[in-house]
Amino acid sequence: MIVKILSSFLVAVLITGAAITDDTEMSKSEKRLAKLEEDYVPTGKTRRCVSLNRLRDSIIIDDQTIFFRAPGKTAYVNRLPRKCSRLAVEERYSYSTSIGQLCRFDLITVLDSFGQSWNRCGLGDFEEWEKKPKDGGTSDADTGNDDEQPE
């Protein structure tokens, strides 16, 4: 009887312990993405190119994902077609363009803290995201209504 109770207790502890471990051990990239998902939601729209004057700053999520903030309520997520080695570790890159916009297949260069080039990687499509309303209401992305403004 004591052995059976002890076994049940041990199983319960192991299950509870596993659940706690799963919830608390998020990777750095998962934490970055979760933080952004608190404020933004995907609209389902994609763009091949985005004008540089529409990009304010960027956050490296992982070796394959860059989050670009734009002025206002819009942002863009670029999922590179392939992993870009050291992008998440170095968290800095450069690009060169002569047309005033970043486009799919444009190359970024991963830089270390000394400005040394590490790797060159192509960009993917730009997925549009929208800032969630602060009042907890639905966004234009949720309603599918891009034209009407709340009164």
What does this protein structure show overall?
The chain is α+β, with helices and mostly antiparallel strands and 151 residues long. It has helices spanning 2-24, 28-39, 87-90, 140-143, and strands at residues 40-47, 49-51, 57-62, 65-69, 74-79, 93-95, 101-103, 107-111, 117-122, 126-131. The protein has a domain at 40-133. The chain contains 4 helices and 10 strands; from the N terminus they run ααβββββαβββββα. The protein has a 5-stranded antiparallel beta sheet. β8 (107-111) and β9 (117-122) form a beta hairpin. The longest helix has 23 residues, at 2-24.
Structural topology:
Elements: H1 2-24, H2 28-39, E1 40-47, E2 49-51, E3 57-62, E4 65-69, E5 74-79, H3 87-90, E6 93-95, E7 101-103, E8 107-111, E9 117-122, E10 126-131, H4 140-143
Region (Disordered): 127-151
Keywords: Signal
Signal peptide: 1-21
**DSSP helix fraction:** 25-40%
Molecular shape:
globular
| Count of DSSP-assigned helices | 4
Mean model confidence by pLDDT: 80
Largest sheet: 5 strands, antiparallel
Main sheet strand line-up = 1-10-5-4-3
Spell out the helices and strands N to C.
HHEEEEEHEEEEEH
Straight-line N-to-C gap: 68 Å
Number of strands: 10
Class inferred from helices and paired strands: alpha+beta
